[in-house]
What does this fold into?
Amino acid sequence: MPFPACLRTALHPLELHLEATRILAIRHGETAWNKDTRIQGQIDIPLNETGHWQAERAGAALRDEPVSAIYSSDLSRALQTAQAIARALGLPVSTHAGLRERCFGEFEGRTWAELEEGEPAHALQWRRRVPDYAPTGGESLLQLQERVMGTFHTLASQHPGEQIVVVAHGGVLDILYRAATQLDLQAPRSWLISNAAINRLLWTPESLTLVGWADTQHLEQAGLDESTAA
It folds into this structure.
């Protein structure tokens, strides 16, 4: 979703600095369905033991960060991750349904292997990232993009000159990365979206900029990348 044309105005560097919102975007910790490569979508799956550990580590890593607010998807795996971070920072968590994972409709609950075996034509459209393709009862990439960018615009615009934490899902973070690097929805994925990794972006009313991505120094073992399961 492009930023409104009326907001694309030339800004003085000082104005840009004052109105920019720093975003710490974090994918939820690991779940049992992540390990099984089972499509979660908007099914409410909680963190597993590793996921809780990852969430606590993310909280510890952000303990000294100046953060004004914490936002989270209302799905358990994201909310539990956000709550661990909130405990470390001494802040409340605000949930927003606009941060939910992409809805995969009738594909939710199935593994990637099951989908490719049982629905090869649909799986091919998915793998090719056809922008307007949507599983029955689910969202297309174009619909996801519009929802995610609209939500981030709403949240970030409330915190000019501040830093916020946003805990969401692999599909959501994929949209953010593409927007910040001006990559097309169909561009092949060449970046990681790991569980509980810390990703840094800078938002202004007219732009989204990538500052740092996939920082996992706070984790002593590797989480699963988003490509294994949504």
Summary: The helical segments are 13-19, 32-35, 49-61, 76-89, 112-118, 120-127, 141-156, 170-181. The beta strands are 21-27, 69-72, 93-95, 163-168, 198-204, 207-215. Residues 1-14 have pLDDT under 50 and may be disordered. Residues 102 and 144 are 6 Å apart (CA to CA).
